[in-house]
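Protocol step 4 of 5: obtain the predicted structure for the target chain.
Materials: sequence only (see below). No template structures provided, no constraints applied. The aim of this step is simply to have a reference model before the mutagenesis design in step 5. Sequence pasted as it appears in the construct record:
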Amino acid sequence: MIVRTAYMLIWFSMMTLTACDIGEMFSDEGTDDFLESQLGGGSGGDGSATFYTEINYSSYIYIYVDNNYVGMLTQYYNSGNSPSCGANSGGAVTITNVSSGSHNWSASDGSYSWSGTFYVSDNTCSKIKIQ
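Step 4 output (structure tokens):
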């Protein structure tokens, strides 16, 4: 039972982080504080990561971090341009409350696949360009 509960908490954690920022999802500050404490975020020590591409691929790019789906790119940035950290639009996917350390990522559009590792340090944002 404990393992199943922990697994569900991890799954819920990833689903919450990918759906939107926790602050956008809940308006009640007490609930927000509770979720952040349960998910390991909100302590001021976590970081974020923003994924984007400058290439116009023919289909959506699905992004995974540590084997968990985090979002998809439906647009691209013009060459030489990049999103601001924290951007969440068709051309960028940002995940927040990412624990400090190395994380593996992968992406695929059905025809092409990409993968790599990125590092997050406390209170910073890492930008990852998919190319």
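Step 4 remarks: The chain has one domain: 2-130. Helices lie at 2-19, 22-25, 29-39.
Proceed to step 5.
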